[in-house]
Amino acid sequence: MSAFGFASRLPALLGIRVPIVQGGMSWASSSAALPLAVARAGGLGVIAAGPMRPDALVDAIREIRAGTDAPFAVNIPLYNKRSAEFLDIAEAEAVPILIVSQGGPRAHLARFHARGVKWIHVVAGPDHATKAEAAGVDALIVVGGEAGGHPAPDEVSALVLVRSVVRATALPVIGAGGVADGAGIAAMFALGAEGAQLGTRFLMTEEASVHAAYKQAVLGAGIADTRLVGRGGLPVRQIRNAFTDAVDAAERAGMGKDDLATLYMSHTLKEAALDGDVALGKVEAGQTAGLIDDCPPTALVMQRLIEEAEAARRRMIG
């Protein structure tokens, strides 16, 4: 049983107290502060390696180790040009848990399982889930179309996507997309998941390392104020701004695929997250932005989530 009463294999598997996973968010958790705060509060804190320099990743891992004995994870997208180096660092630094996306796990699993590392694979649907299970991963993360950043490109909602993966596999499933509070966590368990991953909720904490203007843009957004841009490639869900309006207009005007790709790549998440350009930068956030109205310390968010999830469970059982 987890700390809020739902049955889950994840605490025993991963060594965490509660099956709440902080999404690996480029820049927001590409440092020690947010993952460390989540780990200290009993959840699974996740370093987002994607935009990091190798030396910065090593420093973040060591800072978390110095700050807590609790487990934590590093998120590595295998398409990243530095993924091989990130994997080497994770091995050398004895990272206990890897969360891996956008590539096949089979070539890497034996190496990490031999060291006792748990491998959680991010999948886009039941077909990917069964392949990952056959390869030998330890658990799965399934991200619905509501999520910020890079959700599944077919835009299927978490309500359907999580359920389809739970039905297809015997592995523990962590549901993500559209979860901002304890009621959302309870919904994931009702679908058969054994944990929930939250991104935007943890983005909106004091410890998330993004520009204040970025957080203010998310704080001011409603549930219908995100847009999915870059369809046909690696789509990203972000807060609507001048950049998304330009992409929408270009698509409606019938701009060619190559020119659309150039337009899509003309602005970045870094512009918003580090420089505070929320008009043209990619302000990545999920639809749950419209459910979030504060930016408190992570410890308070974790306390709320646990209490809300338990209250939701009690409502469900009458």
Short description:
The protein has helices at residues 10-14, 33-40, 54-67, 83-92, 106-113, 126-135, 158-168, 182-190, 200-203, 212-219, 242-252, 257-264, 269-273, 298-317, and strands at 20-22, 45-48, 72-77, 97-101, 118-123, 139-143, 173-176, 195-198, 226-229, 236-239. The chain is of the alpha/beta class. The chain is globular, with a radius of gyration of 18 Å.
How far is it from the N-terminal to the C-terminal residue, by CA?
19 Å
Average pLDDT taken over every residue: 96
CATH topology value of the largest domain: TIM Barrel
Q: Work out the strand percent.
A: 5-15%
Number of strands: 10
**CATH homologous superfamily classification of the largest domain:** Aldolase class I
The level 1 CATH classification of the largest domain is Alpha Beta
Number of domains: 2
Task: Spell the H/E element sequence.
Answer: HEHEHEHEHEHEHEHEHHEEHHHH
Q: From the helix content, strand content and strand pairing, which structural class follows?
A: alpha/beta
- Spatial sequence of strands, sheet with the most strands: 1-8-7-6-5-4-3-2
Radius of gyration: 18 Å
Shape: globular
From the coordinates shown, what is the CATH architecture of the largest domain?
Alpha-Beta Barrel
Number of helices: 14
Largest sheet: 8 strands, parallel
Residue ranges: pLDDT <50 for 5 or more in a row?
A: none
Helix % is 40-55%
Features:
8-stranded parallel β-sheet, globular, single chain, 14 helices, alpha/beta, 318 residues
